[in-house]
Each structure stands twice: as structure tokens, then as C-alpha cells.
Amino acid sequence: GLVGPLEFVPMAEESGLILQLGDHVLRRACAALLRFQARHPRTSPLSVAVNISARQLAQPLFVENVRAIIAESGLRPHTVTLELTESILLDDASTSIVKLEALQRAGIRIAVDDFGTGYSSLSYLRQLPVDVLKIAKPFVDDLASEQPNVDFVRAIVGLASALRLGVVAEGIETAEQLRWLRSLGC
User: Fold this and answer.
1) Is residue 123 over pLDDT 70?
2) What are the distances in angstroms from CA 45 to CA 25, 79, 82, 83, 147?
């Protein structure tokens, strides 16, 4: 049967299989994106975002490995975004910053996934080399309620704008959520 990521990711992390799984997922995502780009050519090419685990980021050759996988795929690096949660980024901030800066220099984009649900340290956010903040699904879900609380979403969009970062909302399920997000500049 189906095994959800909340079940298999912790086991893969604990066993170390997350390293091979992460490489496999990145290769498959790159291959799929290349096919989509060929089928749907655009002035601004389609892109893909891939989640990265703490164990992957901690690997000494993580940057070289990611760069090699993207180069082998034939994709332009700026069409690939690596998504990391705030807690992963802060585990070993100085090492993470060095690695993320190297990835950015290679043209790869970095996103903070589920922004607003972790530590959300503004001082670290200023220091981290990131390109995109992803508004966490619980804030997007709230926009579909009878009395939506748009304050958090407005604040995240404003923060992203002030830091000159892109902003993405995840888990949009209704036209009302989409309307709210667009009206807020997301």
C-alpha cells in the first residue's frame, strides 16, 4: 500500500538511505522537468522545487553532488530550487550558509519551506542565502475559513518583499485562497 512521507522519511533519515533516495528524487525531478520544458517551451522556462533533508545538507560533498546531478540532466541551474526548512538551515548555520552560497553561485535557487512554522529567526533569515520564502499551508488554509486571518500571510509577503525574496504559497485548494493570495501580492 501507500506509505506517506511522514512515515518513510524519518526511517530513511535514520537508516541513511535518505542520501540515495534524495539523489534519486533530484535526478527524477530534473528528468521530468526537462521533459516538461521540451513539451511546453516558454520564454521563462518551467522550474522545479525539490525538498532537501538535514542529512543530505550535512554531507561534505553535498554541493558538488547537487551540481553534478543538475549538470548531468542538462537543465539550466536557475530552473532548480532546493527547499529546506528553517530548522534544517539553523542546525549548523555557518556550514549551511557556506553550502547554500556555493549553490547560489552555481545558479541554483534556495527556498525556505514552511516559513512561519519553525524558528522564524529574522536575524538568521537576513544572513541566510535564500531566494524564496514559502508560506506554510496552515496559513493558506486559514484563508478559506469563514473569517480569514490574512495578517500572517500579509506579514510574510511584506517580509519577503522587504528582503527582496520571492514568495510562494503552498497548498492552495480554493479560488478564494488564490484570490486572497493574489490580492496580498503573492
Assistant:
1) no
2) 20, 7, 17, 19, 37
